[in-house]
Amino acid sequence: MARIPPDNAAKSGWIICLVGFPGVGKLTIARALAGVVAGTIVDNHWINDPVLRLLPMSDAAVPEAVWPQVAKVRDAVLETIATLAPRESNFIFTYAGSNEDEEDRKAFEAYRNVATRRGARFVAVRLLCGEDELVRRIQSPERRGRKLTDPNEAIGNVRGFSPLDPRTPNSLTLDVTDLSAEQAAARIAEHLRQTAQ
User: Which residues contact 83 (CB under 8 A, 6 or more apart)?
Assistant: First the structure.
């Protein structure tokens, strides 16, 4: 896969946000994409887990009081990127959010705000996946240790919620049901090239 030429990269870098349900392949695609855009991955688990790992792993619902603590971690990460990271750096975020949760929209807007503060190009990519394939992926061995590995919960997500629609300029919606991570990354990279023109 061809790297994005330097003259197509913003001097203040890219902020790319991959949005989709747990199991859709956000992190796997981010890893494939990182080699193309020389980006640093900021996985949603790296923001959530410092708090969530302090609680017992169980199928019980996460207490609502946890999310303001997770927000503090997110704020610290985003503030660091906004104010301390080199301007030419590229960042690839992964984020699991739904249209039905207002707090998910607020968190997504925080990622977008970092791009504004840095003067970076912001591109959101909404990843979709068919139910059967999502159930298969959610149970893959690579997801061991992740919060969501229950196929019934994955089905509940697909049937009860819709993946967050970025509703931002230059966003891309990509169905990855039949795509490998490398194929998905290639399509995203092509979208970035077109956006940079």
Answer: 117
Q: What is the pLDDT of residues 53-97, one digit of tens each?
A: 888 766 567 788 998 999 999 999 999 999 999 999 999 999 998
User: Which residue has tokens 């970025």?
Assistant: 166
- The secondary structure element, H or E, covering residue 175 is strand 172-175
pTM: 0.88
* Sequence-ordered strand ranges (E) for the chain: 14-19, 39-42, 90-95, 121-128, 172-175
Position 148 scores a pLDDT of: 64
Q: How far apart are the first and last CA of the chain?
A: 19
Domain boundaries, the chain: 12-50+62-196
Reported as a single tens digit per residue, the pLDDT across 147-176 is 566 767 778 777 888 899 999 999 999 999
Q: CB atoms < 10 A from the CB of 174, how many?
A: 20
Phi, psi of 115 (to 5 degrees): -60, -45
Beta-ladder partners of 122: 15
Question: Considering the domain 12-50+62-196 in this protein, what is its CATH number?
Answer: 3.40.50.300
Tokens of 154: 């994955």
CA distances from 36 to 7, 24, 173 (A): 14, 20, 19
